[in-house]
Amino acid sequence: MATVFQKCKSDEDNKNYPCDKARCGHPWTVRYRENGGRSGRQREKTFPKKTGPDGADAFATKVENDKLEGIVSVQRPKYTLKAWGDKWLGGRMLSDRIRRDYEWFFENRLYAQLGQDTDMAAIPPSDLQAFVVYLQECGYEPRTIADWIAKIRGMFNAAVAEEVRGTNPAADPKAPLALPRVSGRAVDDDEIPSAEHVWLIADAIEPTLKLAVLAQSGAGMRLSESLALGPTTVRGGDFRIRWQTSYETEPRLRALKHRAEGEYRDSPAAPSLLEELDAHTRKYGCVRRTAQAGKTTFHEEVAIHRAGGKLLNKSHFQYYFFKAQKKTGLVTPDGKPLYHPHHLRHFYASTALANKVPILNVSRWLGHRSIQVTGDIYGHLVPAMDLAAKLALEAALWAE
């Protein structure tokens, strides 16, 4: 609690000590701690009078109210939200691709919602809670929201460490953020389209996008990876997946998820899928793009493009993907599409595992950061091998 007192009555070093007058006219002092409890710095501020809107009592009340809101009212370095966000990002070791992801999210989500000119020291927990709701309304998955809030929490931690503000509004024990519940990762069987449904969508979608549907379901590519597919992706009958398209309105080629620039993964290509790629390129042609990975320049041919040679991003594809499902009747009772593009990868993984392809291979072809991720999502789809294990152990230990 902030304490209001006169040093002339209590401080022996004060030139007016001791003072026994009730209304002496000497200054009043407010002693308080910054946010952080006993670990917060102790501060003092002096006022010519005790009462009134510009007096010591009013300031003490303001200090306590600001503490409840997580706002710092002491002398600190002044930063707007954008200025601090730029400073924080500038000090982090990030690949160009990851940095662009941060910059896009901060510019189009964080700054747009909280205000880029908002004082960093004046952002309360309630504003971040509203930001969580905003991300939900934007369609972000619970796990993605949790990931971004963790990054924002780190940004505010750095602000506290450099005394830009007193507390972290994203980690306030008195007002913890309510995040959407993150469900288990295991894929639901209802999220795995049948081969019949895959073909219904492929035949109903815009003809120029059919190849992307087949690349996701037949080669396990991510949506943005399938949009970067072309003849230069093929290596000896397999796909060498090195690029994906970016999120911008004018997409470009960028490095893969979970990989540094220039890294790639190989994925087996079904002969018929290679024929689909060949037929597509003969009919629609390719556009040429260059992509940089370190000092190496890659010259790529991209088969999926719009009129005028522009590449597509995820939003472009999703619009036509959902439209194709409504056209074919693949909708829920309330009229929503049954499948998300990511469900095409579920078809790929489940088909491979059902045919006893080792999960380690499937994990590598999908481009997961570790086999644990693959196991969490698809482990329950691996065919039961109980009998095989029993027979093997019986033969090894008890065979006569």
From TrEMBL:
InterPro entries: CB, DNA_brk_join_enz, Integrase-like_cat_sf, Integrase_catalytic, Integrase_recombinase_N, Tyrosine_recombinase_XerCD. Residues 33-47 have a biased composition (Basic and acidic residues). SUPFAM superfamilies: DNA breaking-rejoining enzymes. Residues 188-391 form the Tyr recombinase domain. The keyword Zinc does not apply. Residues 33-56 are annotated as: Disordered. Pfam families: Phage_integrase. PROSITE patterns: CB, TYR_RECOMBINASE. Keywords: DNA recombination, DNA-binding. Residues 79-160 form the Core-binding (CB) domain. The keyword DNA-binding applies. One of its GO terms (molecular function) is DNA binding. It comes from the Bacteria. GO terms for biological process: DNA integration; DNA recombination. Belongs to the 'phage' integrase family. This is Tyrosine-type recombinase/integrase. It comes from Nocardia arthritidis.
